[in-house]
Amino acid sequence: MPVLEHVIRNVSIYNILPPSLTTLGASASQNSCSGTNKINKKEKQYKLFEGDMVIVEDMSTNFSSNSSNPSSSSYTASYCMASLPKSSITIEFRHKNTMVFCNTTKIDNLAKYDEVVNEIYTPSPQKKKLRNQSQKYEIVMNIVSDQLGKMRVPLEVRVQDPKEQLRFHDLLVRIRDEFELIDDMYYM
After folding, report:
1. Residues 166-179: pLDDT tens digits?
2. How many other C-beta atoms can be found within 10 angstroms of the C-beta atom of residue 177?
3. Which of 124, 157, 152 is nearest to 47 (CA)?
4. What is the rounded CA–CA span in Å between residue 186 and residue 101?
5. Is the Cβ–Cβ distance between 107 and 90 less than 8 Å?
6. Which of the two residues, 114 and 23, has the higher pLDDT score?
7. pLDDT grade, residue 182 (50/70/90)?
8. If we measure between CA atoms, which residue out of 131, 145, 164, 128 comes closest to residue 54?
9. Nearest Cα to Cα of residue 160 among 8, 41, 30, 19
10. Is residue 81 within a helix (H) or strand (E), and if so which, with residue range?
11. Which residue ranges make up each domain of the chain?
């Protein structure tokens, strides 16, 4: 079946700071070491990658044509279950069409989607317009390290271009809706 690649240009990936390294945690650890210095220093986020994000969408069905009796009710039920679409996605970060940084695990149901992709809304100074909200995404990525092996690390994804950001958001909404529909079909 078809495999689609959706390319989102001009994407940056940043580290996500744990709560212990935020302003409160940093000042508490500094106060315990120095005693008198009360420096309220916040840990910085660092840009880890800049390039293209590619969403690889694989759409298929589980239908096989070698079933026994097409007139039986069990055949009809199994045909319906087998012909349901199976969609899966992976998100990859590439530079010049080569995967250089990381990717996600295969996302093929709603539970995995919710585990891997989270939207973060930051209100803009202009509260009147809903479109001015800054959208960031927290995506759990697979990172391979020689010393530590394979790790799953949440990273913050920012799409710089507003048109690309809207296209990425619309794509995520469509994919999530498809996973919800497919999950509902299995329970009918």
Report:
1. 999 999 999 999 99
2. 11
3. 157
4. 36
5. yes
6. 114
7. confident
8. 164
9. 8
10. helix 73-82
11. 3-17+45-60+86-186
Q: Other CB atoms closer than 10 Å to residue 157's CB: what's the count?
A: 22
Residue 136: partners with Cβ closer than 8 Å, 6 or more residues away: 119, 120, 122, 156, 157, 158
Res 26: pLDDT: 44
Report in angstroms the alpha-carbon separations of 44 from 6, 23, 34, 36, 134. Answer: 31, 10, 21, 23, 19
Say if residues 88 and 30 touch (Cβ distance below 8 Å): no
Domain 3-17+45-60+86-186: give its CATH architecture.
Roll (2.30)
- pTM tops 0.90: no
Contact 35, 184 (CB under 8 A): no
Percent of the chain with pLDDT over 70: 65
**107 DSSP assignment:** B
